Amino acid sequence: MSIHFGVDYYPEHWPMARWETDARLMREMGIDLVRMAEFSWQKMESAEGTFDFAWLDRSIEILARAGIRVVLGTPTASPPAWIIQANPEILPLDSRGVRRGFGGRHHDCQSNEAYRVHARRIAQAMARHFASKPSVLGWQIDNELGNSHHDLCHCESCRHAFQAWLRAKYGTIAELNRRWGTVFWSQTYDDFAQVPTPAANAVNAHNPSLHLDWKRFHSDLIIEFHDEQAAIIRREAPGQFITHNLMGFFDLVDYFKLARSLDFVSHDQYPMGFFDRPQPMKDPATLAAHLDLMAGLKGAPFWVMEQQAGPTGWSILGKTPRPGQLALWTAQSIAHGADAVVFFRWRSCTVGTEQYWHGILPHNGLPGRRYEELKACIAQLSPVMDDFRGCLGGSEAALLFSYEQNWALEVQPHHPDLDYLQHTMGFCRAFHERNIPLAFISGSEDLARHRLIIAPLLFLDLPGLAARLTAYVRGGGHLVLTMRTGVKDQDNLCQTEGPLPGPYAELLGIEILDYDCLRDCEERVECEGTVGAARLWWDVIELRGARALARGRGGDHGGEPIITEAEAGSGRAYYIGSELDPALMSRFVDHAAKAAGLASLGPSAEGLELVRRRGAEADYLFALNHRGEGASVALPPAWEAIIGSRDLPPYGFSLFRSERTEPRPRPH
Ligand SMILES: [Zn+2]
Question: Phi/psi at 140 (nearest 5 deg)?
Answer without folding.
Answer: -110, 125
